[in-house]
Automatic annotation (TrEMBL):
Residues in N-acetyltransferase domain copies: 10-162
SUPFAM superfamilies linked to this entry: Acyl-CoA N-acyltransferases (Nat)
Protein name as catalogued: GNAT family N-acetyltransferase
Superkingdom in the source lineage: Bacteria
Gene Ontology MF: a single term: acyltransferase activity, transferring groups other than amino-acyl groups
InterPro entries according to UniProt: Acyl_CoA_acyltransferase, GNAT_dom
A Pfam family the protein falls into: Acetyltransf_7
Length: 255
Protein backbone atom coordinates (compact mmCIF):
# COMPACT_ATOMS: atom_id res chain seq x y z
CA UNK A 1 0.00 0.00 0.00
CA UNK A 2 1.22 3.52 -0.79
CA UNK A 3 2.93 5.08 2.22
CA UNK A 4 0.85 7.80 3.86
CA UNK A 5 1.31 9.10 7.37
CA UNK A 6 -1.33 10.02 9.94
CA UNK A 7 -1.34 13.52 11.43
CA UNK A 8 1.22 14.12 14.16
CA UNK A 9 0.15 12.88 17.57
CA UNK A 10 -1.92 9.92 16.34
CA UNK A 11 -1.13 6.24 15.90
CA UNK A 12 -2.88 3.86 13.52
CA UNK A 13 -3.38 0.13 13.10
CA UNK A 14 -5.75 -2.40 11.52
CA UNK A 15 -9.00 -3.17 13.28
CA UNK A 16 -9.72 -6.42 15.12
CA UNK A 17 -12.83 -8.03 16.52
CA UNK A 18 -11.81 -6.78 19.96
CA UNK A 19 -12.34 -3.20 18.74
CA UNK A 20 -16.09 -3.57 18.26
CA UNK A 21 -17.09 -1.92 21.59
CA UNK A 22 -14.74 1.06 21.11
CA UNK A 23 -15.85 1.50 17.49
CA UNK A 24 -19.50 1.45 18.50
CA UNK A 25 -18.93 4.06 21.19
CA UNK A 26 -17.03 6.37 18.84
CA UNK A 27 -19.53 6.00 15.98
CA UNK A 28 -22.36 6.91 18.34
CA UNK A 29 -20.48 9.91 19.73
CA UNK A 30 -20.13 11.13 16.15
CA UNK A 31 -23.80 10.46 15.37
CA UNK A 32 -25.15 12.11 18.51
CA UNK A 33 -23.04 15.19 17.80
CA UNK A 34 -23.88 15.39 14.10
CA UNK A 35 -27.41 13.96 13.93
CA UNK A 36 -28.80 13.93 17.44
CA UNK A 37 -29.18 10.18 17.87
CA UNK A 38 -27.12 7.02 18.21
CA UNK A 39 -26.20 5.36 14.94
CA UNK A 40 -25.41 1.70 15.66
CA UNK A 41 -25.30 -1.07 18.24
CA UNK A 42 -22.38 -3.35 19.08
CA UNK A 43 -24.24 -6.25 17.49
CA UNK A 44 -24.56 -4.36 14.21
CA UNK A 45 -20.83 -3.57 14.11
CA UNK A 46 -19.99 -7.17 14.95
CA UNK A 47 -22.33 -8.33 12.18
CA UNK A 48 -20.57 -5.98 9.76
CA UNK A 49 -17.10 -7.19 10.80
CA UNK A 50 -18.23 -10.82 10.34
CA UNK A 51 -19.79 -10.19 6.92
CA UNK A 52 -18.58 -12.68 4.28
CA UNK A 53 -15.82 -11.07 2.24
CA UNK A 54 -14.99 -8.41 4.86
CA UNK A 55 -11.90 -8.65 7.04
CA UNK A 56 -11.48 -6.02 9.79
CA UNK A 57 -7.72 -6.56 9.70
CA UNK A 58 -7.62 -5.79 5.96
CA UNK A 59 -10.63 -3.58 5.31
CA UNK A 60 -10.74 -1.36 8.41
CA UNK A 61 -8.21 1.12 9.82
CA UNK A 62 -8.18 2.80 13.24
CA UNK A 63 -6.60 6.00 14.56
CA UNK A 64 -5.79 6.59 18.24
CA UNK A 65 -4.54 9.39 20.43
CA UNK A 66 -1.25 8.90 22.26
CA UNK A 67 -3.27 7.89 25.33
CA UNK A 68 -5.04 5.14 23.38
CA UNK A 69 -8.45 6.70 22.73
CA UNK A 70 -10.04 5.66 19.44
CA UNK A 71 -10.72 8.83 17.46
CA UNK A 72 -10.81 7.79 13.80
CA UNK A 73 -12.05 4.93 11.65
CA UNK A 74 -12.05 4.08 7.95
CA UNK A 75 -13.24 1.08 6.00
CA UNK A 76 -13.34 0.11 2.35
CA UNK A 77 -15.68 -2.57 1.03
CA UNK A 78 -13.94 -4.23 -1.91
CA UNK A 79 -15.59 -7.65 -2.00
CA UNK A 80 -17.47 -9.14 -4.91
CA UNK A 81 -16.65 -10.77 -8.20
CA UNK A 82 -16.77 -7.41 -10.02
CA UNK A 83 -15.98 -4.72 -7.43
CA UNK A 84 -16.32 -1.68 -9.68
CA UNK A 85 -17.96 0.42 -6.94
CA UNK A 86 -15.94 0.06 -3.72
CA UNK A 87 -17.70 1.72 -0.80
CA UNK A 88 -15.67 3.93 1.56
CA UNK A 89 -16.83 4.88 5.06
CA UNK A 90 -15.05 7.21 7.49
CA UNK A 91 -15.77 8.50 10.99
CA UNK A 92 -13.81 10.96 13.16
CA UNK A 93 -14.48 11.62 16.86
CA UNK A 94 -16.25 15.00 17.20
CA UNK A 95 -13.50 16.30 19.53
CA UNK A 96 -10.76 15.53 17.01
CA UNK A 97 -12.07 16.97 13.77
CA UNK A 98 -10.23 19.54 11.63
CA UNK A 99 -6.87 17.98 12.53
CA UNK A 100 -6.29 16.09 9.29
CA UNK A 101 -7.67 12.74 10.40
CA UNK A 102 -10.60 12.80 7.98
CA UNK A 103 -8.30 13.44 5.02
CA UNK A 104 -5.80 10.79 6.09
CA UNK A 105 -8.45 8.13 6.71
CA UNK A 106 -10.22 8.83 3.41
CA UNK A 107 -6.88 8.57 1.60
CA UNK A 108 -6.22 5.24 3.32
CA UNK A 109 -9.60 3.92 2.14
CA UNK A 110 -8.96 5.21 -1.40
CA UNK A 111 -5.62 3.40 -1.58
CA UNK A 112 -7.19 0.13 -0.45
CA UNK A 113 -10.08 0.59 -2.90
CA UNK A 114 -7.66 1.18 -5.77
CA UNK A 115 -6.33 -2.35 -5.34
CA UNK A 116 -9.47 -3.69 -7.04
CA UNK A 117 -7.96 -2.45 -10.33
CA UNK A 118 -5.57 -5.40 -10.25
CA UNK A 119 -8.55 -7.79 -10.24
CA UNK A 120 -10.55 -6.23 -13.06
CA UNK A 121 -10.26 -5.99 -16.86
CA UNK A 122 -8.90 -2.70 -18.16
CA UNK A 123 -12.11 -1.83 -20.00
CA UNK A 124 -14.23 -1.63 -16.84
CA UNK A 125 -14.87 1.78 -15.28
CA UNK A 126 -14.19 1.80 -11.54
CA UNK A 127 -15.65 4.49 -9.30
CA UNK A 128 -15.37 4.31 -5.54
CA UNK A 129 -18.15 5.91 -3.59
CA UNK A 130 -18.76 7.40 -0.20
CA UNK A 131 -21.60 9.26 1.42
CA UNK A 132 -22.73 11.12 4.47
CA UNK A 133 -25.93 12.59 5.87
CA UNK A 134 -26.69 15.85 4.08
CA UNK A 135 -26.79 17.73 7.40
CA UNK A 136 -23.08 17.10 8.04
CA UNK A 137 -21.67 20.05 6.13
CA UNK A 138 -18.08 19.61 7.36
CA UNK A 139 -17.87 16.10 5.90
CA UNK A 140 -19.38 17.24 2.61
CA UNK A 141 -16.81 20.04 2.41
CA UNK A 142 -14.00 17.58 3.13
CA UNK A 143 -15.09 15.24 0.35
CA UNK A 144 -15.51 18.08 -2.12
CA UNK A 145 -12.03 19.37 -1.26
CA UNK A 146 -10.70 15.89 -2.03
CA UNK A 147 -12.26 15.96 -5.50
CA UNK A 148 -15.56 14.18 -4.93
CA UNK A 149 -18.75 15.39 -6.57
CA UNK A 150 -22.29 15.02 -5.26
CA UNK A 151 -24.23 12.99 -7.79
CA UNK A 152 -26.99 11.19 -5.95
CA UNK A 153 -29.18 11.66 -2.87
CA UNK A 154 -31.22 9.18 -0.87
CA UNK A 155 -34.21 10.44 1.09
CA UNK A 156 -35.88 9.02 4.17
CA UNK A 157 -39.66 9.32 4.23
CA UNK A 158 -41.78 8.79 7.32
CA UNK A 159 -45.34 9.10 8.55
CA UNK A 160 -46.06 10.08 12.15
CA UNK A 161 -48.92 7.73 13.02
CA UNK A 162 -51.39 8.06 15.87
CA UNK A 163 -53.59 5.13 14.81
CA UNK A 164 -53.16 1.81 12.99
CA UNK A 165 -53.18 2.06 9.18
CA UNK A 166 -56.23 0.85 7.25
CA UNK A 167 -56.28 -2.78 6.21
CA UNK A 168 -54.64 -3.31 2.80
CA UNK A 169 -56.71 -4.22 -0.23
CA UNK A 170 -54.88 -6.86 -2.22
CA UNK A 171 -55.12 -7.07 -6.02
CA UNK A 172 -56.83 -10.13 -7.43
CA UNK A 173 -54.77 -13.33 -7.21
CA UNK A 174 -52.19 -11.77 -4.85
CA UNK A 175 -51.87 -13.63 -1.55
CA UNK A 176 -49.84 -12.68 1.52
CA UNK A 177 -48.17 -15.73 3.06
CA UNK A 178 -46.08 -16.12 6.22
CA UNK A 179 -42.34 -16.06 5.58
CA UNK A 180 -40.52 -19.34 6.19
CA UNK A 181 -36.74 -18.78 6.07
CA UNK A 182 -35.95 -22.42 5.36
CA UNK A 183 -38.35 -22.43 2.41
CA UNK A 184 -38.48 -18.85 1.14
CA UNK A 185 -35.14 -17.15 1.77
CA UNK A 186 -33.54 -17.99 -1.56
CA UNK A 187 -36.69 -16.97 -3.45
CA UNK A 188 -36.79 -13.66 -1.55
CA UNK A 189 -33.13 -13.05 -2.37
CA UNK A 190 -33.73 -13.69 -6.08
CA UNK A 191 -36.80 -11.44 -6.05
CA UNK A 192 -34.79 -8.68 -4.39
CA UNK A 193 -32.06 -9.01 -7.03
CA UNK A 194 -34.66 -8.94 -9.81
CA UNK A 195 -36.24 -5.77 -8.37
CA UNK A 196 -32.92 -3.92 -8.42
CA UNK A 197 -31.60 -5.00 -11.81
CA UNK A 198 -32.59 -1.65 -13.34
CA UNK A 199 -31.53 0.35 -10.28
CA UNK A 200 -28.74 2.90 -10.38
CA UNK A 201 -25.31 1.27 -10.20
CA UNK A 202 -26.55 -2.33 -10.16
CA UNK A 203 -23.77 -4.88 -10.57
CA UNK A 204 -24.68 -8.54 -10.80
CA UNK A 205 -22.77 -10.85 -8.45
CA UNK A 206 -22.52 -14.61 -8.50
CA UNK A 207 -24.99 -16.43 -6.28
CA UNK A 208 -22.35 -18.40 -4.36
CA UNK A 209 -20.79 -15.21 -2.97
CA UNK A 210 -23.73 -12.83 -2.77
CA UNK A 211 -26.42 -15.04 -1.22
CA UNK A 212 -24.37 -15.73 1.95
CA UNK A 213 -23.88 -11.96 2.37
CA UNK A 214 -27.64 -11.40 1.99
CA UNK A 215 -28.40 -14.11 4.55
CA UNK A 216 -25.80 -12.75 6.96
CA UNK A 217 -27.02 -9.16 6.71
CA UNK A 218 -30.74 -9.87 7.01
CA UNK A 219 -31.01 -13.14 8.97
CA UNK A 220 -27.93 -13.48 11.15
CA UNK A 221 -28.65 -10.39 13.22
CA UNK A 222 -30.54 -9.60 16.42
CA UNK A 223 -32.66 -7.09 14.48
CA UNK A 224 -34.37 -9.90 12.56
CA UNK A 225 -37.91 -11.11 13.07
CA UNK A 226 -39.37 -13.42 10.39
CA UNK A 227 -42.87 -12.33 11.43
CA UNK A 228 -42.01 -8.88 10.01
CA UNK A 229 -41.13 -10.18 6.56
CA UNK A 230 -44.18 -9.77 4.31
CA UNK A 231 -44.15 -11.75 1.06
CA UNK A 232 -46.87 -11.28 -1.56
CA UNK A 233 -47.30 -14.22 -3.94
CA UNK A 234 -48.94 -14.53 -7.33
CA UNK A 235 -49.30 -18.27 -7.56
CA UNK A 236 -45.79 -19.68 -7.11
CA UNK A 237 -44.11 -16.38 -8.04
CA UNK A 238 -43.13 -13.64 -5.60
CA UNK A 239 -44.92 -10.44 -6.56
CA UNK A 240 -43.59 -8.21 -3.79
CA UNK A 241 -41.52 -8.20 -0.62
CA UNK A 242 -41.47 -5.94 2.42
CA UNK A 243 -38.58 -6.67 4.80
CA UNK A 244 -39.14 -4.90 8.12
CA UNK A 245 -37.17 -4.84 11.37
CA UNK A 246 -38.30 -4.57 14.99
CA UNK A 247 -36.57 -1.24 15.60
CA UNK A 248 -34.83 1.55 13.73
CA UNK A 249 -31.28 2.83 14.17
CA UNK A 250 -32.39 6.17 15.57
CA UNK A 251 -35.17 5.01 17.89
CA UNK A 252 -35.44 1.53 19.39
CA UNK A 253 -39.11 2.18 20.17
CA UNK A 254 -39.84 2.76 16.47
CA UNK A 255 -39.99 -0.23 14.12
Amino acid sequence: MTNIKPPEGFTVRPATMDDVPACTEMFNLWAEDALGYKEVTEEEILNSFESPGFSPEKNAHLAFTESGTLVGYAEAWTHGETPIRPWLWVRVHPDYQNLGLGTYLTQWAEILASQVLDRLPDYLRVCWELGVDGRVEAAIELFENMGYEHYRSYCQMRIEMDAPPPAPRWPNDIVLKPFDPTRDLEAVYLADIDCFKDHHGYVEENFEDDFPRFRHHFIETENYDPALWFIAWDGDQIAGINICRPYSHEDETMG
